[in-house]
Amino acid sequence: MEEYVEAAIAAGVREIGFSDHIPMYWRTEEQADPTSAMAKGELEEYVTDVCRLQERYPEIPIRLGIEADYIPGYEAELQRILERYPWDYVLGSVHNIGDWDFDNPMKIAQYDQWEIGELYATFFELEVMAVRSGLFDIMTHLDLIKKFGHRPAYDLTPVYADLAGVIAEAGVAIELSTAGRRKPVGEDYPHPSLLRECARRGVPLILSSDSHHPREVAHCFADAREAALVAGFTQVVRFEKRRRFSDQL
Ligand code: ZN
Ligand code: FE
């Protein structure tokens, strides 16, 4: 984690937030996948480690975040976990459709069992539920379902407009993430049209690189900033103890 902080300082960003993947609270310890998320017993140590880094690096603000999966029916369970720690922000993610972790490269064959248009509709229904759950400060990778390049035959503009409307109404922020550039789809999350729909409705924005390695910290941030400006954003936000502050983009 020190290496990420050093990379952030070197990149000249205003602050860095850690948001490791929350333990798979909807699964038993035996069913949880240790390659995708930390184990249940590691959460406490993760929080302690971030707090320790905050003391060691007074030269850069280090935020304590968590990436939390939205699983319908497990809202209360997640709420109980989130209440236990002093998060600066909670990221809301949809990585699962039923039992299928559709962003897992090992499970890519399961796309063949779906009509892609229906898959997209199912995915965006889950996004809407996640946004409305009130559990999250920032929605991550809003169109993660495109990760491996599957696209529906129909025009997604009305779907994007509806989702952006729900997000604006809920007062939740979104991220513009450069991680998609490093995935088969080869473009930012979310798609420029969805980003534009969010900008039009005044949805708060953060820039994110979703780094899974120190060398990815602030990856392509100059391009991301440009894309945000083109979409119509003029500000970015940051979070401290789950309160939101705005800065010039
Ligand atoms: Zn994620
Ligand atoms: Fe991640």
Can you characterise this structure?
The protein has helices at 2-11, 43-56, 75-82, 116-132, 157-170, 192-200, 221-231, and strands at 16-21, 62-69, 89-93, 96-97, 100-101, 138-139, 173-177, 205-208, 235-240, 243-248. With 249 residues, it is α/β, with parallel strands linked by helices. It has one domain (2-248): Metal-dependent hydrolases (TIM Barrel). Strands 1-2-3-6-7-8 form a six-stranded parallel beta sheet. The mean pLDDT is 97. Fe (iii) ion (FE) binds at residues 21, 67, 210.
State the main characteristics.
binds fe (iii) ion, TIM Barrel, six-stranded parallel beta sheet, alpha/beta, globular, 7 helices, binds zinc ion
Bound molecules: zinc ion, fe (iii) ion
Largest sheet: 6 strands, parallel
Mean pLDDT: 97
Order of helices and strands: HEHEHEEEHEHEHEHEE
By helix and strand content, what is the structural category?
alpha/beta
Query: Strand order, biggest sheet?
Result: 1-2-3-6-7-8
Our count of domains comes out at 1
Strand segment tally: 10
Weakly predicted, low-confidence segments:
none
The number of helical runs is: 7
What is the fourth-level CATH superfamily?
Answer: Metal-dependent hydrolases
Explain the layout of strands and helices:
Layout: H1 2-11, E1 16-21, H2 43-56, E2 62-69, H3 75-82, E3 89-93, E4 96-97, E5 100-101, H4 116-132, E6 138-139, H5 157-170, E7 173-177, H6 192-200, E8 205-208, H7 221-231, E9 235-240, E10 243-248
Parallel strand pairs: 1-2, 2-3, 3-6, 6-7, 7-8
Antiparallel strand pairs: 4-5, 9-10
Helix pairs in contact: 4-5, 5-6, 6-7
Bound molecules: zinc ion and fe (iii) ion (FE).
